[in-house]
Amino acid sequence: FEERRGKLYAFRFSDPFDHASCMTGQSPQATDQAIGTGDGVATDFSLVKTYGSAYAPYERPISKPVDGSVIVALDGEETVDFTVDITSGLVSFTQAPDDGVTITAGFLFDVPVRFDTDSLEFSLSAFKAGDVPSIPLVEVKL
């Protein structure tokens, strides 16, 4: 908290309830999330995680993937011919995927957050009782 100067500076946070392209308790697979369709020209695709399926699914941009965790597939076949920018979530292929090829990815990710307060109030007696004070965080949209 002091290092971030309260709510002044953001930081990467691993949300224990939502930090992977897959369901909680599972390991990411290269086919977890659709991130695009090849057109034979485009080489860059942004990581996203889709929530919901039937009514108005929401695509959340993933801008802070965990280094070394991203796996990618072209039409279901894993590939290693790509790089990932861990500061933006941009997947770049060495060669543009062919027209109509489905591009999917699996990954772990952090969430950019900041504290939502400039002061923390708690007593040491709370720690002896096993309580953890509430520390509000706010996601930072990049």
Q: What does this protein look like?
A:
It contains 1 helix and 12 strands; from the N terminus they run βββββββββββαβ. It has 142 residues and is mainly beta. It starts with 10 loop residues before the first strand and ends with a strand. The relative contact order is 0.27.
Keyphrases for this structure?
mainly beta; three-stranded antiparallel β-sheet; 12 strands; 33% strand; elongated
* Overall helicity: under 10%
Percentage of β-strand residues: 25-35%
Largest sheet: 4 strands, antiparallel
Strand pairing plus helix content: what structural class?
mainly beta
Q: Give the number of helices.
A: 1
Number of strands: 12
Question: How would the blueprint of this fold be written?
Answer:
Blueprint: E1 11-13, E2 33-37, E3 44-46, E4 48-51, E5 58-61, E6 71-74, E7 77-79, E8 82-85, E9 90-93, E10 102-106, E11 111-115, H1 124-128, E12 137-139
Antiparallel strand pairs: 1-11, 2-10, 3-9, 4-5, 6-7, 6-10, 8-9, 11-12
